[in-house]
Design brief:
Elements (H helix, E strand, L loop, with lengths): L6 H21 L8 H27 L12 H26 L6 H19 L4 H18 L7 H28 L1
Length: about 180
């Protein structure tokens, strides 16, 4: 499920997923359930994201000369740029629509769904099948978060709790594979 041909890309995935896990754990603090244990868990997820980023960012920098699946100007790079801008445009349009319909509670699920969906084509760009699983899980979390009642916790809590957990697990697995390949 993880292809180790490009260890630098795996370390970069760990770095990006670590930062994203930190951000989602922070967003989940918007309105978690009342019990203190939820805030502690979210804090641990956030710190896990910071730790993953702290381990991988220096490794990415020191291994920057290693081969990568995404070469500037190549077809993978063009796909990456196209997917990125399509993702940004989709987020902007859908968040504006949700806000105008007074459904700001759906902003986190919308963004998580778009992030999840964007990983699916990036699986081919980066030649990483694990991105398909990541995309499917994140999108499913977003859909469920949009559907569950939000009386006991904000929808962003569910997105952040399971989104950051998913990103941490996949990021750590990619990081381990990348370090394992580099020796």
């Amino acid at each position: 499920m993880i292809i180790t041909e490009f260890p630098r890309d795996l370390l970069m995935t760990g770095a990006i997923f670590g930062v994203a896990a930190f951000a989602w754990a922070g967003w989940a603090q918007e309105r978690p359930p009342q019990h203190l244990s939820w805030r502690i868990l979210l804090g641990a997820l956030g710190l896990g994201g910071v730790a993953l980023a702290a381990v991988t960012i220096p490794a990415v920098i020191s291994n920057w000369a290693q081969p990568t699946a995404i070469v500037f100007g190549g077809p993978a790079f063009a796909w990456y740029v196209a997917v990125f801008w399509l993702e940004v445009a989709s987020m902007i349009v859908l968040v504006i629509i949700a806000s105008r319909r007074k459904r700001r509670d759906l902003v986190a699920p919308i963004i998580l769904a778009i992030v999840g969906i964007h990983f699916i084509p990036l699986a081919w760009v980066f030649m990483q099948p694990i991105f398909i699983l990541t995309g499917v899980v994140l999108t499913a979390v977003a859909v469920i978060a949009a559907l569950v009642p939000d009386r006991s916790a904000a929808r962003s809590f569910w997105c952040g709790l399971f989104g950051s957990g998913t990103l941490l697990i996949v990021g750590a697995a990619c990081t381990a594979a990348g370090f394992g390949e580099l020796g």
